Amino acid sequence: MNENFRKQISNIEDLVEISEILSESTVLLESISKYIKHPFDPQFSKDAHHIPMNFDKKGDTIYLLGEYHDRDEEADNSSIIEILYDAIEHKLVTSAHQLKGKGLFCGLVEACAIKKLGFDITSDSEMPEKDFLFDDRNPAILVSVDGNQEDKFVDYMFNNGVRLTLLGHVTKGEMRLDDLSFGFINSFIE
């Protein structure tokens, strides 16, 4: 998010408390408002192929593309974006959203906000949950995939050497990480 947010949460370990602070962020609310008016990340529009950044429906599967453990501010995922363009052209992806500069949790909230959906994801046991959700130096790309295209999508990414991490699925409105509930999307957008 920004340096103020980093300072504010630096000594807080309670993930729900951090999410509540974030829910009051004008930066997040402005970002959601921007995406409601134009739900596309510009880097995922090529030729006549536009892919929304928002989740489409309950039950879609959520993935991260690329290396999210890498905290390099200069990380380049242009080769992944080219492969993603092809996946978009083949209609293997229902949404794509860049996480760099916002972190996974903010990206998930933005992707849920337009259709008032939620998420149920699993954390990464190899990194602290706080870093997993809130570190804004995450260069990965958040995507959702329709269940009917999931096998083709996974094969396509694997065959093209793209690191792919299954996070979970889109829900009706509740936002969850493992057994922890962050409440419902409405509390972040109203």
Structure in words:
This protein is an alpha+beta fold. It has one domain (3-189): PurM-like C-terminal domain (Phosphoribosyl-aminoimidazole Synthetase, Chain A, domain 2, Alpha-Beta Complex), CATH 3.90.650.10. Helix content is 37%, strand content 24%. It has helices at 3-9, 15-23, 26-37, 78-89, 104-113, 129-134, 150-159, 186-189, and strands at 40-46, 49-52, 61-65, 95-98, 118-121, 141-145, 164-171, 174-177, 180-184. The strands form two sheets. Strands 4-6-3-7-5-8-9 form a seven-stranded mixed β-sheet. Strands 1-2 form a two-stranded antiparallel ribbon. A hairpin with a 2-residue loop joins strand 1 (40-46) and strand 2 (49-52). The chain is globular and about 40 Å long. The mean pLDDT is 90.
CATH C-level label: Alpha Beta
Beta-strand percent range: 15-25%
The best one-word shape is: globular
Number of domains: 1
Strand order within the widest sheet? 4-6-3-7-5-8-9
Q: What Rg do the Cα atoms give?
A: 15 Å
Distance between the termini: 20 Å
The stretches of 5 or more residues where confidence is low (pLDDT under 50) are: none
